[in-house]
């Protein structure tokens, strides 16, 4: 993270750890879920207990990290018209505060009702991410739920969205040099117009 910040802010030219490998896997690489894998997982997740279901769907629809989702609370969400808006406060180890409109299909699936049913934290099941990962493996898919974050990043790069690199980074909580481009009260409204162009996976 420090190397990424330094590189993004002109302190260094390249990231020294970029080519480190672990068991021949390049650091920072992770395969996206394919369209078929996404449909399989999200369709099957509808039958899981609520916390596993909605943890899986949030990973697919928000691009947030495991920790950001696991730490969210009812009070972090509000409605703007028919759109659910999430005010991410960040965590001690994963602090990327931002306010983002959520993809419409999450609301259509009933996520707002789940939010309203929780007294505080949305997720209380210990290691819900690990449970979801084990369940995904049981479906015969050798990837983790974190691949949904990478899949959404790929979708946001679609030139038809015309979202721009700075707003992509903002939405996903990535650091970047164009921080000034994320300022302004109209940012959520602007993102709302763009984010609805991302198609529902199921």
Describe this structure in words.
By secondary structure, the protein is mainly α. The chain has a single domain, classed as hpI Integrase, Chain A (Orthogonal Bundle). 43% of the residues lie in helices and 9% in strands. The strands form two sheets. Strands 3-4-5 form a three-stranded antiparallel β-sheet. A hairpin with a 2-residue loop joins strand 1 and strand 2. The radius of gyration is 17 Å and the shape is globular.
Secondary-structure topology with pairs:
Layout: H1 2-8, E1 21-22, E2 25-26, H2 35-45, H3 50-62, H4 66-70, E3 77-80, E4 83-88, E5 98-101, H5 104-108, H6 111-117, H7 128-138, H8 147-156, H9 165-172, H10 187-195
Antiparallel strand pairs: 1-2, 3-4, 4-5
Helix pairs in contact: 2-3, 3-7, 3-8
Short structural summary:
With 202 residues, this protein is mainly α. The chain is built from ten helices and five strands; from the N terminus they run H-E-E-H-H-H-E-E-E-H-H-H-H-H-H. It has one domain: hpI Integrase, Chain A (Orthogonal Bundle), CATH 1.10.443.10.
Keywords:
202 residues, mainly alpha, hpI Integrase, Chain A, three-stranded antiparallel beta sheet, two-stranded antiparallel sheet, 43% helix, disordered N terminus
What structural class do helix, strand and pairing data support? mainly alpha
Helix percentage range: 40-55%
Count of helical regions:
10
Low-confidence stretches: 3-10, 17-28
Q: Radius of gyration, rounded?
A: 17 Å
What kind of sheet is the major sheet? 3 strands, antiparallel
Order of strands, main sheet, comes to 3-4-5
Sheet-strand content, in percent, reads: 5-15%
H/E topology pattern? HEEHHHEEEHHHHHH
Could you name the CATH homologous superfamily?
A: Intergrase catalytic core
Summed over residues and divided by their number, the pLDDT gives a mean of 80
Kindly provide the name of the CATH class. Answer: Mainly Alpha
CATH topology: hpI Integrase, Chain A
Terminal CA distance reads 34 Å
């Amino acid at each position: 993270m420090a190397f990424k910040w330094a590189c993004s802010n002109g302190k260094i030219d390249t990231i020294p750890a970029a080519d480190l490998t672990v068991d021949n896997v390049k650091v920072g690489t992770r395969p996206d879920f394919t369209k078929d894998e996404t449909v399989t997982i999200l369709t099957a997740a509808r039958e899981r207990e609520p916390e596993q279901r909605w943890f899986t769907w949030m990973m697919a629809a928000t691009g947030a990290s495991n920790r950001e989702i696991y730490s969210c609370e009812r009070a972090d969400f509000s409605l703007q018209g028919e759109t659910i808006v999430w005010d991410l406060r960040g965590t001690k180890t994963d602090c990327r505060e931002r306010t983002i409109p959520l993809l419409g299909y999450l609301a259509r699936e009933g996520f707002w009702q789940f939010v309203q049913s929780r007294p505080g934290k949305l997720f209380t099941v210990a290691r819900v991410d690990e449970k979801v990962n084990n369940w995904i493996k049981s479906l015969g898919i050798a990837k983790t739920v974190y691949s949904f974050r990478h899949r959404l990043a790929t979708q946001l790069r679609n030139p038809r969205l015309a979202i721009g690199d700075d707003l992509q980074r903002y939405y996903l909580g990535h650091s970047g040099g164009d921080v000034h481009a994320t300022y302004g009260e109209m940012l959520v409204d602007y993102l709302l117009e763009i984010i609805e162009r991302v198609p529902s996976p199921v």
